[in-house]
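Here is a complete protein record:
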Amino acid sequence: MTRCTTPHGGTARRWTVCRRALAVLVALVAGLVALPRPGLAHPHVWVVMASELIYGADGSVTGVRNAWTFDDMFSTYATQGLDSKQKGVFTRDELKDLAEVNVTSLKEYDFFTYAKLDGKDQSFGDPVDYWLEFKDSQLTLHFTLPLKAPQKAKGVDLEIYDPSYFVDFSFGERDPFVLKNAPNACKVAVRKPTDQESAAKIQNLGEAAFGQDNSRVGQLFANKVSVRCS
C-alpha cells in the first residue's frame, strides 16, 4: 500500500489510523469506478444529511456547513479496531486523524457537492471546521465548505450526489437545509427524485449509461436545493 502521511508526523498509532482511514475512504468512493450493468446501480453506503447555507454580514453567500451521518454498518466498519479509552465509545479527539484523512481524500471528488450562484458554476475551497462524532453507533462527519469567491446572489442552486450512486445521500426529515444569517425574503426548496422517477429515467438511458462514464446515473438521484431571495 502506498504510504499516507499526516501533518502530525508518523507515530505508529497515527500510521495505523491513517491506513484504516484510507481503507474506509476506498470503500466510500469505490462507486466512482464504472458499473458494468444497470442491475448494479444501487447504493452500498447511506448518508443522512443536515446542511446550512451560510451568509456573511454583507449578505454574501460564503459556504455550506454539513453534517453527514453514515449508516450503522458503515460506521461499525470505519471504527473497527480504533483505539479508545472506553470500548464502543469514541471521542472527538480519538477520531481526529480519521476525520482529517476523510476530508482530505474526499476533496478529489468535490465532496459530491455542486453549486451555482445566479446560474454560474462555483468552486469550494478546502474544508474547515471538520470533525467526526460517534453517537448511537453512527459516525457523523461535520465540515464546512467555504466558497472560493463569496458573493451576493438572488439564486443559489446546489446538487448533492455520488456520480456512481455507490453512496446514497438523503436529507433528514427535520430541518434538513436551513439558511444561516440570510437576508430577508429568502425561500428554500429541497427536492430528491422519487425511486419511481429515477427508475424510469435509468430505464430510458439504457445500458450505454453504465459504461466507463456513469456520472449521468448518479445525477438522477441528486438532492437538489434551490434558494431564492427577492
Residues 1-23, 29-40 have pLDDT under 50 and may be disordered. Helices lie at 12-29, 72-79, 96-106, 195-205, 215-219. The chain has one domain: 12-229. The chain has five helices and eleven strands.
